[in-house]
What we know:
Radius of gyration: 18 Å
Number of helices: 6
Order of helices and strands: HHHHHEEEH
Amino acid sequence: xxxxxxxxxxxxxxxxxxxxxxxxxxxxxxxxxxxxxxxxxxxxxxxxxxxxxxxxxxxxxxxxxxxxxxxxxxxxxxxxxxxxxxxxxxxxxxxxxxxxxxxxxxxxxxxxxxxxxxxxxxxxxxxxxxxxxxxxxxxxxxxxxxxx
Length: 148
Protein backbone atom coordinates (compact mmCIF):
# COMPACT_ATOMS: atom_id res chain seq x y z
CA UNK A 1 0.00 0.00 0.00
CA UNK A 2 2.87 2.41 0.77
CA UNK A 3 4.21 2.08 -2.78
CA UNK A 4 0.78 3.08 -4.06
CA UNK A 5 0.69 6.29 -2.07
CA UNK A 6 4.24 7.36 -2.87
CA UNK A 7 5.92 5.92 -5.98
CA UNK A 8 2.85 5.35 -8.15
CA UNK A 9 1.32 8.75 -7.43
CA UNK A 10 4.40 10.75 -8.46
CA UNK A 11 5.13 12.06 -11.95
CA UNK A 12 8.55 10.32 -11.86
CA UNK A 13 6.81 6.94 -11.87
CA UNK A 14 5.81 7.52 -15.50
CA UNK A 15 9.47 7.48 -16.56
CA UNK A 16 10.78 5.05 -13.90
CA UNK A 17 8.40 2.29 -15.04
CA UNK A 18 8.87 1.72 -18.77
CA UNK A 19 5.40 0.25 -19.08
CA UNK A 20 3.68 2.81 -16.87
CA UNK A 21 0.07 2.26 -18.04
CA UNK A 22 0.25 -1.48 -17.23
CA UNK A 23 1.96 -0.83 -13.87
CA UNK A 24 -0.65 1.76 -12.91
CA UNK A 25 -3.52 -0.58 -13.83
CA UNK A 26 -1.91 -3.50 -11.98
CA UNK A 27 -1.26 -1.39 -8.87
CA UNK A 28 -4.83 -0.05 -8.73
CA UNK A 29 -6.24 -3.56 -9.28
CA UNK A 30 -4.12 -4.81 -6.37
CA UNK A 31 -5.21 -1.87 -4.22
CA UNK A 32 -8.84 -2.78 -4.96
CA UNK A 33 -8.11 -6.38 -3.87
CA UNK A 34 -6.51 -5.04 -0.69
CA UNK A 35 -9.49 -2.74 -0.07
CA UNK A 36 -11.91 -5.67 -0.48
CA UNK A 37 -10.07 -7.50 2.29
CA UNK A 38 -10.27 -4.45 4.59
CA UNK A 39 -13.63 -2.75 4.02
CA UNK A 40 -13.50 -0.89 7.37
CA UNK A 41 -9.94 0.48 7.00
CA UNK A 42 -10.30 4.25 7.39
CA UNK A 43 -6.71 5.00 6.33
CA UNK A 44 -7.17 2.99 3.15
CA UNK A 45 -10.45 4.79 2.41
CA UNK A 46 -8.65 8.12 2.93
CA UNK A 47 -5.86 7.04 0.56
CA UNK A 48 -8.36 6.06 -2.14
CA UNK A 49 -10.14 9.37 -1.64
CA UNK A 50 -6.91 11.37 -1.86
CA UNK A 51 -5.77 9.58 -5.00
CA UNK A 52 -9.23 10.00 -6.54
CA UNK A 53 -9.17 13.75 -5.95
CA UNK A 54 -5.65 14.27 -7.30
CA UNK A 55 -5.39 11.80 -10.18
CA UNK A 56 -7.64 11.47 -13.19
CA UNK A 57 -5.80 8.26 -14.13
CA UNK A 58 -6.48 6.78 -10.70
CA UNK A 59 -10.19 7.70 -10.89
CA UNK A 60 -10.49 6.01 -14.28
CA UNK A 61 -8.63 2.86 -13.18
CA UNK A 62 -10.54 2.63 -9.89
CA UNK A 63 -13.83 2.92 -11.80
CA UNK A 64 -12.80 -0.07 -13.96
CA UNK A 65 -13.30 -2.30 -10.87
CA UNK A 66 -10.41 -4.61 -11.81
CA UNK A 67 -9.15 -6.86 -8.99
CA UNK A 68 -5.82 -8.63 -9.36
CA UNK A 69 -3.27 -10.38 -7.17
CA UNK A 70 0.36 -9.57 -8.00
CA UNK A 71 2.29 -12.81 -7.46
CA UNK A 72 4.84 -12.86 -10.29
CA UNK A 73 5.85 -11.02 -13.41
CA UNK A 74 8.45 -8.70 -14.86
CA UNK A 75 9.28 -5.19 -13.70
CA UNK A 76 10.64 -3.08 -16.54
CA UNK A 77 12.45 -0.06 -15.09
CA UNK A 78 14.47 2.85 -16.41
CA UNK A 79 17.37 3.72 -14.10
CA UNK A 80 18.77 7.25 -14.53
CA UNK A 81 22.37 6.00 -14.77
CA UNK A 82 22.17 2.35 -15.83
CA UNK A 83 19.36 2.62 -18.35
CA UNK A 84 16.73 -0.06 -18.92
CA UNK A 85 16.51 -2.88 -16.37
CA UNK A 86 14.24 -5.95 -16.51
CA UNK A 87 13.65 -7.90 -13.31
CA UNK A 88 11.62 -11.04 -12.90
CA UNK A 89 9.80 -11.08 -9.58
CA UNK A 90 7.91 -13.49 -7.36
CA UNK A 91 5.77 -12.44 -4.40
CA UNK A 92 5.43 -14.82 -1.49
CA UNK A 93 2.96 -14.41 1.37
CA UNK A 94 4.37 -15.36 4.75
CA UNK A 95 2.42 -18.08 6.59
CA UNK A 96 0.28 -16.61 9.35
CA UNK A 97 1.08 -13.03 8.27
CA UNK A 98 -1.13 -12.16 5.28
CA UNK A 99 -0.03 -8.50 5.35
CA UNK A 100 3.65 -9.42 5.14
CA UNK A 101 4.93 -10.17 1.65
CA UNK A 102 8.38 -11.16 0.49
CA UNK A 103 9.17 -10.03 -3.04
CA UNK A 104 12.25 -11.51 -4.75
CA UNK A 105 13.61 -9.73 -7.83
CA UNK A 106 16.01 -11.52 -10.15
CA UNK A 107 18.10 -10.82 -13.22
CA UNK A 108 19.50 -13.82 -15.12
CA UNK A 109 23.31 -14.09 -15.13
CA UNK A 110 24.77 -12.59 -18.29
CA UNK A 111 21.62 -10.61 -19.10
CA UNK A 112 21.87 -6.90 -19.93
CA UNK A 113 20.24 -6.16 -16.56
CA UNK A 114 22.83 -8.25 -14.68
CA UNK A 115 25.63 -6.45 -16.54
CA UNK A 116 24.17 -3.04 -15.71
CA UNK A 117 23.77 -4.01 -12.05
CA UNK A 118 27.42 -5.09 -11.96
CA UNK A 119 28.38 -1.72 -13.45
CA UNK A 120 26.37 0.10 -10.77
CA UNK A 121 27.95 -2.06 -8.07
CA UNK A 122 31.45 -1.31 -9.37
CA UNK A 123 30.77 2.42 -9.22
CA UNK A 124 29.54 2.07 -5.66
CA UNK A 125 32.52 -0.09 -4.64
CA UNK A 126 34.94 2.65 -5.69
CA UNK A 127 33.18 5.32 -3.66
CA UNK A 128 29.71 6.60 -3.10
CA UNK A 129 27.78 8.07 -5.98
CA UNK A 130 27.96 11.84 -5.64
CA UNK A 131 24.74 13.27 -7.03
CA UNK A 132 25.97 16.84 -6.55
CA UNK A 133 28.64 16.39 -9.19
CA UNK A 134 31.80 16.74 -7.10
CA UNK A 135 34.37 14.24 -5.90
CA UNK A 136 34.41 10.54 -6.84
CA UNK A 137 31.20 10.38 -8.83
CA UNK A 138 29.23 8.29 -11.25
CA UNK A 139 26.52 10.93 -11.56
CA UNK A 140 25.62 11.72 -15.12
CA UNK A 141 27.25 8.57 -16.48
CA UNK A 142 25.06 6.34 -18.61
CA UNK A 143 25.33 2.62 -19.23
CA UNK A 144 28.15 1.91 -21.65
CA UNK A 145 30.12 5.06 -20.72
CA UNK A 146 33.13 5.27 -18.45
CA UNK A 147 32.89 6.92 -15.07
CA UNK A 148 34.98 10.11 -14.72
